[in-house]
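Narrative of accomplishments. A recurring question from our advisory board has been how the design workflow behaves on a single, concrete structure rather than in aggregate. To address it, we present the structure tokens for one chain from the evaluation set, followed by the sequence designed for it. No filtering or post-editing was applied between the two.
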């Protein structure tokens, strides 16, 4: 049985005051709700990871980073390593978020290096995959997701891949208010699970959590997570409002 997972991606939002306030509100609200029934994580901007982990100290909420670099240290100006993220208290890291792919220009090859470095360094990567609107309209969703999964996980053994969470995030649904229907999302999640079985084995397909991301909110979270292969949600906009994020966590129980 896969434990539901709700993760909030704060993107380039909040500041030192509002980030801590948001984390405190989510921490106190989630204590009453779920305890150990749901994995919960928040991914603030790098510079607020420290203050946010302090605010989460007595909660069940894990800390995640929005990105990382694959090298362990050295002359990589502006980058952050796995050991730095672990040092500050991170458990998770997003790899290949659609904004990193399509705004910043990250390639499958770079994302694969990040996923591999995260796993070897003891961070749990959340590998984000998903098609553009034009690709969906050209019936290329499965082809795109297959490429992103195969390239993103290249070289990872069947044992190591168990550290990975996959997030299916159709790009046309991210930050647009246009959510995939539960049926559309389930269809791709089922495809990804079968792909994991083909790439690895039944154990990987059964154990790896596949989250949905794309305008998830309190009004649609329960129905999305009610689908057989949707194990949780990666939430952008609605994770910036503590009450909305808490309502989504409740919907996962
Ligand atoms: C995201 O950032 O991963 C995301 C899904 O954003 P939103 O919920 O705002 O669509």
């Amino acid at each position: 049985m896969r434990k539901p997972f709700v993760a909030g991606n704060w993107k380039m939002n909040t500041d030192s005051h509002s980030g801590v306030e948001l984390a405190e509100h989510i921490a106190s609200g989630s204590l009453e709700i779920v305890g150990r029934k749901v994995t919960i994580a928040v991914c603030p901007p790098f510079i607020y990871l420290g203050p946010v982990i302090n605010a989460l100290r007595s909660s069940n909420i894990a800390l995640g980073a929005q990105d990382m670099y694959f090298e362990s240290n050295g002359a990589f100006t502006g980058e952050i390593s796995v050991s730095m993220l672990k040092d500050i208290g991170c458990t998770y890291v997003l790899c290949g978020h659609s904004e990193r792919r399509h705004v910043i220009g990250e390639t499958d090859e770079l994302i694969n290096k990040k996923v591999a470095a995260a796993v070897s360094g003891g961070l749990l990567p959340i590998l984000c995959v998903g098609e553009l609107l034009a690709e969906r309209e050209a019936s290329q969703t499965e082809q795109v997701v297959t490429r992103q999964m195969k390239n993103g996980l290249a070289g990872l053994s069947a044992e190591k891949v168990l550290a990975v969470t996959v997030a299916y995030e159709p790009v046309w649904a991210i930050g647009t208010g246009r959510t995939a229907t539960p049926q559309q999302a389930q269809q791709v999640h089922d495809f990804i699970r079968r792909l994991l079985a083909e790439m690895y084995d039944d154990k990987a397909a059964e154990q790896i959590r596949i989250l949905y991301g794309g305008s998830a909110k309190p009004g649609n979270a329960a129905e999305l997570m009610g689908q057989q292969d949707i194990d949780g949600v990666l939430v952008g906009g609605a994770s910036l409002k503590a009450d909305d994020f808490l309502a989504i966590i409740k919907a996962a129980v």
